[in-house]
Write a structure and sequence with these properties.
Number of domains: 2
Radius of gyration: 23 Å
Helix content: 25-40%
CATH superfamily of the largest domain: Phosphoglycerate kinase, N-terminal domain
Order of helices and strands: EHEHEHEHEEHEHEHHEEEEHEHEHEHH
Number of helices: 13
Strand order of the largest sheet: 3-4-2-1-5-6
CATH topology of the largest domain: Rossmann fold
CATH architecture of the largest domain: 3-Layer(aba) Sandwich
């Protein structure tokens, strides 16, 4: 079991906290979605209430090792100050606006026993961050006494701020990391059964390792989204002009065979919603999976598939979902993804959403509060589901 912030006496100590404040900004540099900031609040407020000084750090966007004003974390500092105040914590965030991220000026500002909350400038203003440069990691570590890992979304990257810092400081997890590891870990390694996995998205190749790992653990695996057509092709079926991951046809064949050999029920769509073009005003019709017109493309699962998948979800003990069932961004092709989300919202099973587009879809349909857990990390959650030990999780000390 990993150590958490509960295992440290914070009075008079400085917590160096790696957060994931990689929030979306509009053209006016205003935050359009503060979910990733609010996700870190429980840990931040716990540390404040237990007497710690906080030095928060994060990346934002892809400045590629250069200091670019449009990637400044100043809007995050301002929004975090507002959120803390709204929770009754009058603790203005001190923004260390330094293009070098860490220098003597920053060190002189940060008082490690002050009880203040500081936020460093964008870590990726320094090219050393993504290179996991030991010297830069040491510079960051010099600002704190204990390293708190709270950025699940970047925990699959061995960067200076996610892994390197732990070479210099003891490392514990925040509440967000604790929750991610519990829900994703339990879902795969100690699930309430039946365990059902739903995999969508475009390419089989992107998720081949996840699917292979899940086939050793799940009772039922349901496929949707663009990758379904690669499986159809592997079965020798017509897929019209649907998206095809041609390089993964043999992989799909192998997965079908592996599922049969291991006794796992692998479900493919029984009907699909087809269109004559990739557009909202396209001509649309629903056809059986083996009756795809040569001049049309599949853009969503059909109602019979929704019903079949929904029946399995209702009877599940645990459901893990990663990847939409269709082009849910277009209302005409969102019905399948919405139906799966609604079935998951209604089931009594433990429901885990694996970040990325699935999380975006659940949010779009207003169903976030009805899921057991929505992961904050798309790529990180996928690698976790592959069974990979993530660098940012590995460095957290064991109890």
């Amino acid at each position: 079991m990993k150590k958490t912030v509960r295992d440290v006496d914070w009075q008079g100590k400085c917590a160096l906290v790696r957060c994931d404040f990689n929030v979306p900004l509009n053209e006016d540099h205003e935050i359009t979605d503060d979910t990733r900031i609010t996700a870190a609040l429980p840990t931040i407020e716990y540390l404040i209430s237990h007497g710690a000084t906080l030095v928060l750090m994060s990346h934002l966007g892809r400045p590629k090792g250069e200091a670019k004003p449009e990637f400044s974390l100043r809007p995050v500092a301002e929004r975090l100050t507002e959120l803390l105040a709204a929770d009754g914590c009058e603790k203005p965030v001190v923004f260390c606006d330094c293009d070098e991220v860490v220098n003597e000026g920053v060190r002189s500002v940060i008082q490690k026993d002050s009880g203040e909350v500081y936020l460093l400038q964008n870590l990726r203003f320094r090219k050393e961050e993504e290179k996991n440069d030991p010297e830069f990691a040491g510079e960051l570590a010099s600002l704190g006494d204990v390293f708190v890992q709270e950025a699940f979304g970047t925990s699959h990257r061995a960067h200076a701020s996610t892994a390197g810092v732990a070479d210099y400081l003891p490392c514990v997890s925040g509440f967000l990391i604790e929750k991610e590891v519990k829900y994703l870990g339990d879902a795969i390694n100690d699930p309430k059964r039946p365990l059902v996995a739903i995999m969508g998205g475009a390419k089989v190749g992107d998720k081949i390792k996840v699917i292979s790992n899940l086939l050793t653990k799940v009772d039922t695996l349901m496929i949707g989204g663009g990758m379904a057509y690669t499986f159809f092709k592997a079965k020798g079926l017509e897929i019209g002009t649907s998206i095809l991951d041609a390089e993964s046809i043999e992989l799909a064949e192998d997965l079908l065979k592996k599922a049969e050999e291991s006794g796992v029920k692998l479900m493919l769509p029984v009907d699909v919603v087809c269109a004559d073009k990739f557009a909202e005003d396209a001509g649309v019709k629903t056809v059986a999976f083996d009756d795809m017109p040569k001049d049309m493309m599949g853009l969503d699962i059909g109602p019979a598939t929704c019903e079949a998948y929904g029946k399995v979800i209702k009877e599940a003990g645990t459901v893990v979902w990663n990847g939409p069932m269709g082009v849910f961004e277009m209302p005409r092709f969102a019905a399948g993804t919405r139906a799966i989300a609604e079935y998951m919202a209604e089931t009594e099973a433990t429901t885990v959403i694996g970040g990325g587009d699935s999380a975006a879809a659940v949010a779009q349909f207003g169903l976030e509060d009805r899921m057991s857990h929505i992961s904050t990390g798309g790529g990180a959650s996928l690698e976790f589901l592959e069974g990979i030990e993530l660098p940012g999780i590995k460095v957290i000390e064991e109890k």
